[in-house]
Amino acid sequence: MVDLRENQTLYQQLSQAVLDYDEVLSEQLCKKVIDAGLDPVSAIKQGLTAGMTKVGEYYKAGRYFIPELLLCSDALYAGLDILKPHLNAQNQSQQAGKIIIGVVEGDIHDIGKNLLKAMFIASGWDVYDLGKDVSCQTFVEQAKAVQPDIVALSALMTTSMMVMPMVIERIRDLNPDIKVMVGGAPMSQDVARKFGADGYAPDIVAGVNEAERLMSSTVQE
């Protein structure tokens, strides 16, 4: 008989391992999940995702900063590397959505993008990371190939953010149903609106919420 209390304790320990940015423990606990024949999806949602959600709360409260977020995301990825090979096709078809993320051309600052990627993965999204200094053409080609629900553009400099309107226009021409969201230090809600973006995220914690809002608006349409 499955001991649900023991399972919950294991998931709580996994969540805490992410919060404590303990990569080794995250790996060990995820191996224990597999060895015990437990559902990897439950471990991801109730363990890794729950931990990363708490990390986001700590960040918003000023208890954690960028260095801690990076370390926590490393612990998240360490666990995911163990669990993901055990997800079946049905599990993978139940993902929250498909998103392309990247830092626009002329900008090599990708810490925020990397953290956003971790938050999306933890929340069950199928993430296609194009990296940094990504050309407009690459965004368009990948959007055509992947057919994502959302394309997320990041920029840290005022000069590089000026590339965004062109990328947004090209994505619109390709497929008007693809939503585009933007973020980064020089961005604001007004600038995002001026650029023609569908959404704007002031920080990485808001990023997933904004993407979910865009998905909901698409369903309603």
TrEMBL record:
<dbReference type="Pfam" id="PF02607">
    <property type="entry name" value="B12-binding_2"/>
</dbReference>
<feature type="domain" description="B12-binding">
    <location>
        <begin position="96"/>
        <end position="221"/>
    </location>
</feature>
<dbReference type="GO" id="GO:0050667">
    <property type="term" value="P:homocysteine metabolic process"/>
</dbReference>
<dbReference type="InterPro" id="IPR003759">
    <property type="entry name" value="Cbl-bd_cap"/>
</dbReference>
<dbReference type="GO" id="GO:0046872">
    <property type="term" value="F:metal ion binding"/>
</dbReference>
<feature type="domain" description="B12-binding N-terminal">
    <location>
        <begin position="1"/>
        <end position="95"/>
    </location>
</feature>
<dbReference type="GO" id="GO:0005829">
    <property type="term" value="C:cytosol"/>
</dbReference>
<dbReference type="Pfam" id="PF02310">
    <property type="entry name" value="B12-binding"/>
</dbReference>
<protein>
    <submittedName>
        <fullName>Dimethylamine corrinoid protein</fullName>
    </submittedName>
</protein>
<dbReference type="InterPro" id="IPR036594">
    <property type="entry name" value="Meth_synthase_dom"/>
</dbReference>
<keyword id="KW-0170">Cobalt</keyword>
<dbReference type="InterPro" id="IPR036724">
    <property type="entry name" value="Cobalamin-bd_sf"/>
</dbReference>
<dbReference type="GO" id="GO:0046653">
    <property type="term" value="P:tetrahydrofolate metabolic process"/>
</dbReference>
<keyword id="KW-0479">Metal-binding</keyword>
<dbReference type="GO" id="GO:0031419">
    <property type="term" value="F:cobalamin binding"/>
</dbReference>
<dbReference type="GO" id="GO:0008705">
    <property type="term" value="F:methionine synthase activity"/>
</dbReference>
<dbReference type="InterPro" id="IPR006158">
    <property type="entry name" value="Cobalamin-bd"/>
</dbReference>
<dbReference type="InterPro" id="IPR050554">
    <property type="entry name" value="Met_Synthase/Corrinoid"/>
</dbReference>
